[in-house]
Amino acid sequence: MRQPLRFPWSNLDVDDRSAPVIAVRVDVTGTRAEVPDHQHRKGQLIFALGGGVTCRVPSGLWMVPPHCAVWVPGGMKHSNLATANARLFFVYIEPEMIELPDRCCTLSISPLLRELIVDLSDQAADDGARRDLLATVLLRELPRMPVQQLHLPLSPEPRLKRIAKALAEDPSDRRTLAEWAKRVALSESSLARLIVRETGLSFGRWRQQLHLIVAIRELTSGASVQQVSADLGYDSVAAFITMFKKALGKPPAKYLASIAQDPPTNSATSSRTS
């Protein structure tokens, strides 16, 4: 069950505000909450202090585990789905004030940036000098954060949209490439080439990336490794942990612990934004 995400303010159009940085805290209680498709001129940083968020844009699905954030460039249509009991911060930034990619990306957030975001969201409107100082430091530090490869490339191609929708609804679906090809009326080789051309990934790697996103989302919501492994259709917990460790360099518990600390600077799954 999903409910609309409730903001602590009403009738606020962030694009009408001249401030270079606007930070808003949003707490999700009970069930999952969603912000449907929307867009704004300002860029948006979606930061999770607790729980997780899945951000969907036309080109992909992006995961925001705790202590990470997704950057959404200004003008890009997107939607957000938050896990139950998530603690979120939405940071809106004037595009010309910061050098960040013109594409979505998941960023690790350092303890310094975490405290800046939390503090900015608590600043009273009349505390202008301190708010401006915090915003200046945030704008300098944010482009230095490493990028985490926690996204699933999506394609507008109708047959791939059909497959992606089915796998998102049932991540445990273990149909082979040949079985999917038959379902969408293509040869196996033609479907394989189509997936690589549209996503840059093989079918197996594409499905694995979906599994990683679902796994991190559910683990950060409090699900056990055993439960997530079963929900994703793995034959054993060991097989799931092996996949996770091979893809992200650490088993689930250690990976989630690591992103709650200082962001990694040397990782096979991360790179600088600049």
User: How many helix segments?
Assistant: 9
What is the CATH topology descriptor of the largest domain? Jelly Rolls
The pLDDT mean sits at 85
- Percent range of helical residues: 25-40%
List unreliable stretches of 5+ residues: 262-274
Large-scale geometry: globular
Rg calc: 19 Å
SSE sequence, one letter per element: EEEEEEEEEEHHEEHHHHHHHE
CATH superfamily of the largest domain: Regulatory protein AraC
Structural class computed from helices and strand pairing: alpha+beta
Number of domains: 2
For the record, the CATH architecture of the largest domain stands as Sandwich
Distance between the termini: 39 Å
Strand runs, count: 13
| β-strand amount | 15-25%
CATH class of the largest domain: Mainly Beta
Strand order of the largest sheet: 2-9-4-7-10-11-13
Main sheet, how many strands, which sense, barrel?
7 strands, antiparallel
Can you put this structure into words, describing what you see?
- A seven-stranded antiparallel beta sheet has the order 2-9-4-7-10-11-13, with helices on one face. Strands 1-3-8-5-6-12 form a six-stranded mixed beta sheet.
- It is about 35% helix and about 25% strand.
- It has helices at about 110-120, 130-140, 160-170, 175-185, 190-200, 205-220, 225-230, 235-250, 250-260; strands at about 1-5, 20-25, 30-40, 45-50, 55, 60-65, 70, 80, 85-95, 105-110, 145-150, 150-155, 270.
- Strand 5 and strand 6 (about 60-65) form a beta hairpin.
- Helix 1 (about 110-120) runs antiparallel to helix 2 (about 130-140), helix 4 (about 175-185) crosses helix 5 and helix 7 (about 225-230) crosses helix 8 (about 235-250).
- It is globular.
- It is an alpha+beta fold and about 270 residues long.
- The protein folds into two domains: about 1-150, Sandwich (Jelly Rolls), CATH 2.60.120.280; about 155-270, Arc Repressor Mutant, subunit A (Orthogonal Bundle), CATH 1.10.10.
- The longest helix is centred in the last third of the chain and has 18 residues, at about 205-220.
- It contains nine helices and 13 strands.
